[in-house]
Amino acid sequence: MISTSEFKKGLKIEYKGEPYEIIDFQHVKMQQRAPIVRTKIKHLKTGRVLEENFPAGEKFEKPELEEKQMQYLYSQGDSYVFMDMESYEQISIPKERIGDAIYYIKDEMIVDVIYYKGEPLVIEPPMFVELRVAETEPAFKGDTASGGTKPAKLETGLTVKVPFHIQTGDLLKIDTRTGEYIEKVKE
Predict the structure, then answer these.
(1) What GO cellular component is one of the record's annotations?
(2) Domain tally, the chain
(3) Is residue 121 a contact partner of residue 115, using CB atoms and an 8 Å limit?
């Protein structure tokens, strides 16, 4: 059982018989009332985000989630095909279920696929990925004085803010949790 005092971002709970992930939470103590925990939770099957208030100390079941390592093979229409690294079984996962994780996945990349009751729910790419810059504006002399950033479109379609010295073709390290540029990878 998971208590509201153990809440943290990314924690998965079972609420009303369904799996949810905690996106954000805040402990609130109101005058002359019992404390509550304001929580934003995301339904792992539908992706719908709810805002719920739970009494402090309420307990939740931990959902029975299974994690499998799978290799991304290719996209086929509106779905993506992954291969189980143990059984070599191939599964097709709809685009809606993958969400923004698709921006961090390249061909043949190993990802974690979270299953709930035998059904694939969520794709979790590695914490950091290396992606190549597909296009970005060239740097102009004098741009570096302000230490600003410019947008860069990566090979997967993701757009990130990068320093001015980054050029098209550079390999970048990206944090998949925030979608932010970390550093230029030396090749």
Answers:
(1) cytoplasm
(2) 3
(3) yes
Strands 119-124 and 18-28, how do they pair? unpaired
The Cα 170–Cα 187 span in angstroms is 9
Q: Write the single-letter amino acid at 59.
A: K
Q: Which two tokens stand for residue 30?
A: 């109101």
Domain residue limits at 176: 128-184
Residue 99: strand, helix, or coil: helix
Please state, as a whole number, how many other Cβ atoms lie within 10 Å of the Cβ of residue 175.
14
pLDDT at residue number 124: 86
Q: Is the pTM of this model over 0.90?
A: no
Same domain, 21 and 56: yes
Phi/psi at 154 (nearest 5 deg)?
-95, 170
DSSP 46-91: T--EEEEEEETT-EEBPP-EEEEEEEEEEEETTEEEEEETTT--EE
Instruction: Indicate if 148 and 104 belong to the same structural domain.
Output: no
